[in-house]
Structures are given as structure tokens and as C-alpha cells.
Design brief:
Layout lengths: L3 H18 L9 H7 L4 E3 L8 H8 L5 E3 L3 E2 H6 L1 H7 L9 E4 L10 H13 L45 E4 L1 E7 L3 H11 L6 E5 L4 H5 L10 H15 L5 E6 L4 H14 L4 E4 L13 H11 L5 E4 L5 H11 L3 E4 L1 H5 L12 H14 L3 H12 L5 H8 L4 H10 L8 E2 L9 E2 L2
Parallel strand pairs: 1-11, 2-6, 3-6, 6-7, 7-8, 8-9, 9-10, 10-11, 12-13
Antiparallel strand pairs: 4-5
């Protein structure tokens, strides 16, 4: 005889399964549309050697809607099969599926920050050596509707089968490739090769490393607005003017240079602009200037969406950045390395995120050095100094897994976690 409790549990399981089965097909939207139409858009920054497939998949489990590849050298990518294999790996399951809330009001700078913006203008008055032309060309209106990414079947589902509000929309996440190039033709060649696997291209105009500057890429482009514009146009000419091309920049000590770069890029037809709130010469330990970030956003004049980056360690930092800079989205780098569940509201890496990463890393065949490094970042707040020293000395994935098992982590059992991923080992049911 079946007990009433067993029967009720079976009925509940059937109702839950039916709810999942009735989900609408997730919308596939260009990144620009996501930024324009939704209230909260969270972004993983392009991270050198770190924002590879397993980590991108991990953060997409925790409300990170847009992810980036690590910076790819366009010239190497276009001429070397080995570079293409090394620099890009993707999965049909790496993009998340999210309930997203439509934007009620356009983003704007918090009233209290407007005085700071005016002060920046006064302190940065034009002089006789002003590099700007008297006026800027009008922005090129680009309707970004096209993606060459060929969607394959995916097992990803949203965190819950029912929308949080009646206005919630089910949206699939996006993957952007960030590329660095000293010229437009090489960038267009690489874009053509990578386009079937991504949702858009981002041009790196902000890498501060000396080797990058010497190669004429990254921050070397901050004071070459015409070259940046030519690169954007080259990609559009090759891929079509509806294909998304964005740029990521840093603020310049001379804000007139920032304005010149932004306005020239808009005239070339960028789809959105990401701004890092430090200058080329500032160390990562220096505080980000939200005032200068807001200035750069104001230079855009709302003509394309903007994303702010720098010193984002928790949700309050994200809220503050949105309020004070008036941006459409926020981007985290080191904050997500330390806590991949940051945008889901966790103040430090939860245990289930570590378990998920171990499974993803082993499933995808992540090389040990990066697998180990990511776990060291995530577990830093959980370890005391002797434990950090011992963990850092481990020399294989087997040793890492065995050690974490002694700490109580369980990688084989089905787990109840606050998200859904239909890959083996992840379940709400």
C-alpha cells in the first residue's frame, strides 16, 4: 500500500516536472539589446588565462549573464591553428538561462554625482594644445540584430520553473570574444573565423601590461582613436553592420582624450562601450574613480549601452556603481575569481560553487595549473595560512580532489543548490 506521504510526494514531483516542461523557449538577444532592455545585467570580464570555458560555465550558474573569453591575439588566432585550439573552447551548455526583469527607467547618474562631474569639467578646461577637433562626427546608427553563432541543443534551464514576477522574461546568456590587434585587417580575419562560436566581438583597448603596449595593442590604442575607429569599421565591413562590435577602454588622465576616443568610436558604429575606472598607469591596488567613470559614460550620451568595470567585490559595489555611474551593466574580474557566486548574493564562495567547479573542470579537462589556481582563489577566504600553504603545494588534480574530500566536499552525490544545471550531478530535484 502506498502511504499518503508517498503519494503526495509523487504528485509534487509530477507538478514540478510539468512546470519545467512548460517553460517558454529562452530568448536569444544581442548583447546590446540585453543591456538596453533589462534592469540588472552582470558581466564577467575577460581575464588573462582565467575566463576559460569551465570558469565561464561556473559563473553562468550564479547570475552572470554575459561572459568573455580571455584576451585573444587576433593576428596569432587568424594564422595559427594551434593558437585557435589553445585560445578558444566553447560548449553548447556554457551560456546560462535566466529570468530577467525588464528595465523600468533608463539608467542615469545619481544626482549627487553630478556636482563631481561638473568639477571634473572645470578642472580639465581646454587649453591651446587641446587635441580634440572642434566637433565630432555624428554617431553611426547600427541596429545590432545579427549573430552568426549556431545554437546547438542545450540542457540549461533557469533557476526556477516559474518567473519571479509577471514581467520576467526568459533569456539565454551571451558569450563575447575579446580580441587585441594593432590593425583592422587582422582583427577582421580573426572575427570571421571566430564568429560562428560567439555572440559578438570586443576590442581590447585597455590592457595595461608593458608587452601589450609595446605591441601596439591594449592601452596603446587609448590615444589612437582613428585607429580604433578603423578597426571597428573593418570588422563591420567584413561581418556586416548588424554584427556586434564593442570596445573596452580605460579612463585617460586627460579626460579630453577619453571623450575623443568615445565619440570617435561611436561614429564608427560600436555596439556598446565598457569603461574601466583606472588609468593605464594606475595599479590594481589604487581605487577606481567613479567620477571619471561617470564622465566617460556621460560622453556616450546614451547613444549605446555602457558597462562599468573596476573594484567590484560584492553586490553593494555593483549597486553603487550603477547608481553613481548611470551604466546599463556592471563587470567584475577579481571579485568573481574570489567569489564566482558574487552576483547571486553570496559574500564569499559557497561550498556548492567549489563542488560545481571541480566537476566542470574535470568534465571539460581543464589543465591542472589553471584548475588549481582557480580553486586557490575561491578557497582563500576559507583557509587559514597553513592550509593555504599545504593546498598550494598540491601537484595534481587527484591530490586536490582527495584533499577537498577530507574537508567534507562531496563531488559525486546529487546536490540541492540554488540554481539549475542539467549537466550530470546538478539538480534541484
Amino acid at each position: 500500500m502506498i502511504s499518503p506521504e508517498t503519494s503526495a510526494a509523487a504528485d509534487m514531483a509530477e507538478d514540478t516536472a510539468a512546470a519545467w516542461a512548460d517553460l517558454p523557449t529562452p530568448e536569444r538577444l544581442p548583447v546590446r539589446t540585453m543591456l538596453e532592455e533589462f534592469e540588472t545585467v552582470n558581466v564577467l570580464a575577460p581575464l588573462v588565462r582565467c575566463s576559460k570555458l569551465p570558469f565561464r560555465h561556473l559563473v553562468s550558474l550564479y547570475e552572470t549573464h554575459i561572459t568573455h573569453t580571455p584576451m585573444i591575439l587576433a593576428e596569432e588566432f587568424s594564422r595559427s591553428q594551434q593558437a585557435r585550439v589553445s585560445d578558444l573552447s566553447t560548449s553548447s551548455d556554457e551560456r546560462g538561462v535566466f529570468w530577467m526583469e525588464p528595465r523600468r527607467h533608463p539608467p542615469r547618474v545619481e544626482p549627487g554625482a553630478l556636482g563631481a562631474l561638473e568639477a571634473l569639467r572645470i578642472s580639465d578646461e581646454r587649453d591651446a594644445d587641446d587635441p580634440r577637433p572642434p566637433s565630432y562626427p555624428p554617431p553611426t546608427t547600427v541596429r545590432v540584430t545579427k549573430t552568426l553563432h549556431d545554437t546547438r541543443p542545450t540542457s540549461r534551464l533557469p533557476p526556477t520553473p516559474t518567473p519571479p514576477t509577471q514581467n520576467s522574461r526568459l533569456v539565454r546568456g551571451a558569450l563575447l570574444a575579446q580580441m587585441a590587434s594593432p590593425n583592422g585587417p587582422s582583427l577582421a580575419d580573426a572575427a570571421e573565423l571566430i564568429a560562428p562560436h560567439i555572440d559578438g566581438l570586443d576590442i581590447n583597448c585597455g590592457c595595461p601590461q608593458r608587452w601589450a603596449y609595446a605591441e601596439g595593442i591594449g592601452c596603446a590604442l587609448l590615444r589612437k582613436p582613428e585607429l580604433v575607429a578603423d578597426m571597428v569599421r573593418c570588422v563591420h565591413d567584413r561581418m556586416g553592420w548588424e554584427w556586434p562590435v564593442s570596445i573596452k577602454i580605460r579612463v585617460d588622465p586627460d579626460l579630453r582624450r577619453t571623450e575623443q576616443l568615445v565619440r570617435t568610436a561611436l561614429a564608427a558604429g560600436v555596439s556598446h562601450i565598457t569603461v574601466h575606472g583606472r588609468t593605464r598607469h594606475q595599479a590594481s591596488t589604487d581605487p577606481v574613480s567613479l567620477d571619471k567613470l561617470a564622465f566617460a559614460v556621460e560622453c556616450v550620451r546614451g547613444e549605446v549601452p555602457t558597462v562599468a568595470n573596476g573594484d567590484l567585490w560584492d553586490l553593494e559595489d555593483a549597486h553603487k556603481m550603477r547608481r553613481e555611474c548611470g551604466v546599463h551593466g556592471v563587470m567584475a574580474a577579481r571579485g568573481l575569481l574570489a567569489n564566482p557566486a558574487l552576483f547571486a548574493g553570496y559574500d564569499r564562495t559557497p561550498v556548492h560553487a567549489v563542488e560545481n567547479f571541480v566537476n566542470l573542470g574535470l568534465d571539460y579537462g581543464f589543465i591542472f595549473s589553471l584548475f588549481h589556481r582557480h580553486l586557490a582563489y575561491m578557497l582563500e577566504s576559507h583557509f587559514v595560512k597553513p592550509e593555504k600553504t599545504y593546498f598550494n603545494a598540491l601537484s595534481s588534480s587527484v591530490q586536490v580532489v582527495e584533499y577537498l574530500q577530507t574537508r567534507g566536499l562531496d563531488f559525486g552525490a546529487r546536490r540541492k543548490v540554488p540554481m539549475w544545471d542539467a549537466r550530470r550531478g546538478y539538480s534541484l530535484l
